[in-house]
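Researcher: Let's do a round of design. I'm pasting the structure tokens now; please hold your answer until I've finished.
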């Protein structure tokens, strides 16, 4: 793998539990389905459900487990390559601290309340996960839209990457691409100023993880 950021989907079998280990690269993760635990080997189980977010610093010894009888799936965002799994006796301190953030502890605000988001979308809410949330700085966000939402999403100054965390989206880039159905784990991306048409066709809300720099827009 080249020395660039990347993302993968990992599916953990029911009851899976890794041995204590480290990674040479820091990663971030969002639970898509099931229940996942990621912490120090001696920590009590903290089962993180869909929409939960965690970070794993390079060199920090930890285990990753999936709840017995349930399993789990997560989107893993790797900050650079190559991404290696190494034994725990090679642990080191890179100065970062891990974070486990349950979905119920995310702080949501109306997209219209953010000064650095151009928004005109009733019911669209945003939670900031990481980075410096201001124009020109790379950051990660969760965007939730209500059932039946139909609108546009784009970034004026930088590329945009998005992963479906919850629900079912219909997606297209008019008039260049046909409408496609994106379920959980689905992904779309583009260079700056590409307008993505999205609609939530689930009975309940839909949710996206968004990675971009600068000001992004969400409009109905």
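Researcher: That's everything. Go ahead.
Model: Designed sequence:
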């Amino acid at each position: 793998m080249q020395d660039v950021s990347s993302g993968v989907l990992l599916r953990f079998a029911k009851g899976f539990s890794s041995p204590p280990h480290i990674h040479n690269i820091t990663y971030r993760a969002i639970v898509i389905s099931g229940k996942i635990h990621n912490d120090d080997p001696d920590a009590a189980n903290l089962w993180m459900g869909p929409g939960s977010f965690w970070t794993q610093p390079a060199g920090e010894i930890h285990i990753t487990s999936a709840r017995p009888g349930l399993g789990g799936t997560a989107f893993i965002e790797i900050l650079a390559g190559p991404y290696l799994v190494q034994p725990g006796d090679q642990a080191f301190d890179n100065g970062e601290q891990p974070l486990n953030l349950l979905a119920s502890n995310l702080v949501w605000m109306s997209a219209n309340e953010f000064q650095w988001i151009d928004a005109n979308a009733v019911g669209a809410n945003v939670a900031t996960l990481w980075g410096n949330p201001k124009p020109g700085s790379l950051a990660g966000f969760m965007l939730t839209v209500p059932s039946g939402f139909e609108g546009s999403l784009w970034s004026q100054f930088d590329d945009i990457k998005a992963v479906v965390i919850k629900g079912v989206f219909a997606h297209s880039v008019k008039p260049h691409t046909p409408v496609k159905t994106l379920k959980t784990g689905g992904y779309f991306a583009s260079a700056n100023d590409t307008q993505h048409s999205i609609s939530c066709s689930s009975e309940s809300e839909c949710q996206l993880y968004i990675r971009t720099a600068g000001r992004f827009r969400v409009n109905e």
